[in-house]
Amino acid sequence: MTLTLYHSAYSTCSQKVRLTLAEKGLEYTSNELSFAKQEQLEPDYLKINPNGVVPTLVDGDDVIMDSSVIVEYLEEAYPTPALSPSDTVERAKMRVWLRFMEEVPTKAVRIPSFQRVFLPTLRLVKRRSGFAKDTDQRTLRKGFYGKMNKGQGFSDPEIEESNHHLRMTVERIEKALVIGPWVLGGQLTLVDLTLAPLIDRMLDMGCLEFFEDAPKTLEWMARLQARPSYDQAFYKGARLSDRTEFQYAKLRNWIGGIVSKSA
Ligand SMILES: N[C@@H](CCC(=O)N[C@@H](CS)C(=O)NCC(=O)O)C(=O)O
């Protein structure tokens, strides 16, 4: 068995897969791609993932893309320990959560991630390299990057819709946890592992207002964070707060360099 994961430290989609690999105790070769260097758009990587996004799992000769597909693949190919219910109806419920994740909060969380964290950095860096060129190179989400790359960010209605979707997600988790301790009840499943990076990201960005009425969600998060798998998946550099400190330090140097040149 030779597993290779193409991923990025702070990509929530990659974190889902890293958590699943860690829970299953699976070793893998890590191939971390740099978004700053746009390594996800390099021709060699596009040969294995034409969407130009991470994560991608390579298992022997087989290439598996899309984080939810990857975690379900891992569950089927490496069934122990089980991270899905044995009952068919419960499994269907698990898949409903996985689809909801893809369609609603995964998209929604991109808005504050870019608006609050990436955009201020992009504004400074892209002034030098040009926004339009960067947008053209994107495989997926040209529209998304086009909007970002105008340097203005998202409109108020777009931000409101994202907030609405994130709030709805936290409410659903809170409601599901009435039984607990995990989202589907007594068993830790792929649902917990795929939701955790989203909630971690929201907390990391300081979106605390979403959690004022969600004590069960915060307790659930603490339970997950206490598991050994968590630190394996969320190593140093995996949170935006780690990165922004780093980026801001770099940006301060960069700005300092520009200022001293013009002095
Ligand atoms: N449906 C895909 C989406 C993957 C995705 O959007 N990955 C992001 C990181 S979370 C990415 O690679 N972004 C690179 C980019 O935007 O250029 C999945 O679930 O794996």
Structure description:
- The chain is of the alpha+beta class.
- Helix content is 61%, strand content 6%.
- The chain is built from 13 helices and four strands.
- The chain has helices at residues 12-23, 43-48, 67-77, 88-103, 105-108, 110-129, 131-137, 142-149, 156-176, 190-204, 215-225, 228-233, 240-262, and strands at 3-7, 29-32, 56-59, 62-65.
- Helix 1 (12-23) runs parallel beside helix 3 (67-77), helix 1 (12-23) crosses helix 10 (190-204) and helix 7 runs antiparallel to helix 8 (142-149).
- It starts with a strand and ends with a helix.
- The mean pLDDT is 87.
- Glutathione is lined by residues 11-13, 35, 40, 53-55, 66-68.
**Percentage of residues in DSSP E strands:** 5-15%
Average per-residue pLDDT, rounded, comes to 87
SSE order, one letter for each helix or strand: EHEHEEHHHHHHHHHHH
| Tally of DSSP β-strands | 4
Q: What value does the Rg take, in angstroms?
A: 19 Å
Q: Which of globular, elongated, flat, extended, rod-shaped describes the shape?
A: globular
* Count of individual helical segments: 13
CATH topology of the largest domain: Glutathione S-transferase Yfyf (Class Pi), Chain A, domain 2
Q: Which CATH C-level class of the largest domain is it?
A: Mainly Alpha
Which structural category fits the helices and strands? Answer: alpha+beta
Helix content: 55-70%
The CA-CA distance between the termini, in Å, is 59 Å
Placed side by side, the strands forming the largest sheet appear as: 2-1-3-4
**Assembly type:** single chain
The main sheet comes to: 4 strands, mixed
How many structural domains can be distinguished in the coordinates? Answer: 2
**What is the CATH architecture annotation of the largest domain?**
Up-down Bundle
